[in-house]
Amino acid sequence: MDATIIGAAIAAFVAAATVFAIWVATRKWTAAHTIGRAQEEASRLVRDAERHAETLRKETELAAKERAHALLQDSEDQSRERRRELESIEQQLARKTQELREHDREAKQIDTTLREREQHAAERERSLAAEMQRCEELTREQQQALQRVSGLTADAAKQLVIKQIEQDARHDAAHLVKRLEAEARETAAEKAKQIITQAIQRSAPEHAIETTVSVVDLPSDDLKGRIIGREGRNIRTLEQTTGVELIVDDTPGAIILSSFDPFRREIAKQAIERLVADGRIHPARIEEVVERVKAELDEFVLKEGEAAAFELGIFDMHTEIHKLMGRLKFRTSYGQNVLSHSMEVAYLAGIMARELGLDAHTTIRAAFVHDIGKAIDRDLQGTHLTLGIDFLRQHGESKAVVDAMAAHHMDIDWPSLESMLVQAADAISAARPGARRDILESYIKRLEKLEGIADSFKGVSKAFALQAGREIRIMVESETISDEEAIWLSKDIAKRIELELQYPGQIKVTVIRETRAVDYAR
Question: Could you say which architecture CATH assigns to the domain 213-431?
Answer without folding.
Answer: 2-Layer Sandwich (3.30)
